[in-house]
Specification:
By secondary structure, the chain is of the alpha+beta class. The chain has one domain (2-55, 82-200): Aminopeptidase (3-Layer(aba) Sandwich), CATH 3.40.630.30. The chain is 34% helix and 32% strand. It contains six helices and eight strands; from the N terminus they run βααβαββαβαββαβ. Strands 6-7-5-4-3-2-1-8 form an eight-stranded mixed beta sheet, sandwiched between helices. The chain starts with a strand and ends in a 9-residue tail after the last strand. Residues 55-61 and 69-82 have low confidence and may be disordered. The protein binds coenzyme A (COA). Coenzyme A (COA) binds next to β4, α4 and α5.
Length: 212
């Protein structure tokens, strides 16, 4: 089983949209994801996936002559099934000196295991790779879990945006972190700790954006 951070692909949209619809009201449309992946020049969408190699037991020996011949031709190799599941996803826009985290979510069944932090750290690293000066995001004032995650990475509340969420008029905190020397130093320490804890591969934060 391996954890991988990588750029989101068109083939991921179904799984991503299925998580999105559970997490956000309103969710993004599939067309929005397609646009972000294929067309937007400022967007860097990411997924965290988990690959599972599962070796299935050999089937019982076939009884008929025809089946026995077929098995001999194919050999006795066990079937190896490789299954990938998306645990969560995120989005980052880079415009001039600003990196903007547009979205981040982990499937509810997989929360509290460090995966949201891996996504945030991936986007933080991407912002550094793209030479952003600061990172900004909006978060519901009631979303204490997400705020705590952001604070861990140096974000602080800058302004309260009244009635920011149209679905229910809840206010948002505008949170920011300046990517100064101390923040970078702290980030690299957190990132190394995460890598040691989870052993994930990162094909996102230092990678070039694939062509749509
Ligand atoms: C916010 C979210 C991405 C966090 O993902 P997660 O995988 O559950 O979080 P992690 O396990 O990686 O935890 C990372 C940090 O988040 C905070 N956190 C996580 N669960 C928490 C909880 N139950 N209570 C308080 N803080 C919590 C902690 O700071 C934690 O760091 P720590 O373990 O060192 O204390 C996830 O809760 C989610 O998808 N929420 C729904 C979508 C959403 O609200 N997105 C944010 C939009 S702005």
């Amino acid at each position: 089983m391996s954890l991988n951070l990588r750029y989101m692909r068109l083939a991921d949209i179904r799984q991503v949209a299925a998580i999105d619809v559970i997490c956000f009201e309103p969710p993004w449309s599939c067309e929005s994801y397609t646009f972000e992946i294929n067309e937007s020049r400022v967007s860097h969408m990411v997924v965290l996936d988990q690959q599972t190699d599962q070796t299935l037991p050999l089937p019982r020996p076939p009884q008929s002559l025809r089946a026995r011949l077929r098995q001999r031709l194919l050999g006795d190799a066990q079937a190896l099934y490789s299954r990938g599941a998306i645990l969560g996803y995120g989005g980052l826009w880079k415009i001039d000196g600003e990196a903007h985290i547009s979205t981040i979510a982990i499937h509810p069944a997989n929360r509290g295991l460090g995966y949201g932090e891996i996504l945030l750290a991936g986007m933080f690293g991407k912002a550094l790779q793209l030479s952003a000066e600061y990172i900004v995001l909006e978060v519901r004032v009631s979303n204490a879990v997400a705020q705590r995650l952001y604070q861990k990475y140096g974000f602080s509340r800058i302004a309260r945006k009244k009635n920011y969420y149209r679905s229910d008029n809840e206010d948002a905190w505008d949170m920011r972190v300046a990517l100064d020397r101390d923040t970078r130093h702290r980030f690299f320490q957190l990132y190394e700790t995460l890598r040691r804890q989870h052993g994930f591969s990162d094909g996102y934060s230092h990678a070039s954006r694939p062509r749509g």
